[in-house]
Design brief:
With about 280 residues, the protein is an alpha/beta fold. It contains nine helices and twelve strands. A six-stranded mixed β-sheet has the order 7-2-8-1-12-9, sandwiched between helices. The chain has a two-stranded parallel ribbon with strand order 3-6. A two-stranded antiparallel ribbon has the order 4-5.
Amino acid sequence: MGEIVLAAKITHVPSIWLSIQPGKYHGIRRPAEMALAEIGRRARELGADTFLVADTHWMNTIGFHLNGKDRHRASYASHELPHFIHDLAYDYPGDPHLAELAREEIAAGGQKALVHTYKDLGLEYATLVPMYFMNGDSAIRVLPIGCNVYSSIDENRRIGEALRRAAERSERKVAFLASGSLSHAFPPNEVAESLLNEVSSAFNRKTDMAVLDLWTEGRIAEFLEMLPDYNERCTGEGAMADTAMLFGILGWKDYSGRGEQLCPYFGSSGTGQIVVDFPVPSTVA
C-alpha cells in the first residue's frame, strides 16, 4: 500500500535559476535554493519514489490533466521569460501507473481528468526548477498535474483528496509539491525590473505574512476560511489550485499539523515566495 510521505508548498520562481548562473544575479536566491534542496533531501530520507507536482505553470482551462509519460526528456526555454530560463536540459522518469490511478480517483469523485503521453508535452518550469535542486540524479519519478485556472477552491480540495486516495492505492511513496507562489500580482511592465526582489503591494506582503503565521501556528482551519478571498484579492497563481490540493491531501480542516518554514519569505518580481514543509497526518504529533 502506498502513502503520501511529504507535502510541501514550494517556490519555483525563475530568479532561482538566475541565482545559479554566472553574473550579477548569482546567489540572489541562495536561501530558496537551499530550502528546495532540503525538501529533496527529506523526500529521499522518507523513501519517496515519486514527486507529484501541482504545477501552476501548466495552466489548464477545461478539466484536470496529468502528464503520464514514461520518460520526461527534452530541453526547455521559458516562453514567458526566455532571458531567465533557456537551454534547460532535463531527463526524469515518469509515473504512468500513478497517473492512471489519479485519473480513476478524480473520476470517482465526480470530476473529469485525462492522462496524456503526447511526445511534445513537456515539463514547465514550476516542475523543472524544483526538480533541478531536488532530483539532480533523476532517481525519483516525476508526475505533474496541471492547475485549472477556472477551478474553484472546493474543486481542488477534492482533487487533493483524490490524489491521496490514488497514492494509497499504489505502491508508491509520494512526495507532493504545491509549486506556486503566495500572492501573485505582477507590477506594471514599465517598473517590473525594479521589483526583482520586491512584492507588488504592502497589502499583499502583509496578507502573505499573516498566512505564514496561520500555517506555522497550525491555524489551518482559519486559513482555509480565508483561502477563497486570499486567492481573489491577492491574484492567486493558477487559482491557488496547488494550495487547495495540498490541504485536500492533508485532510483539510481536520489537519492539525504546523508548517515548517524553510527559508525567509521573499519577493520576486512583485510576487510573494516561500518554502514550507507540512508534516503529513501520520507523522503529526
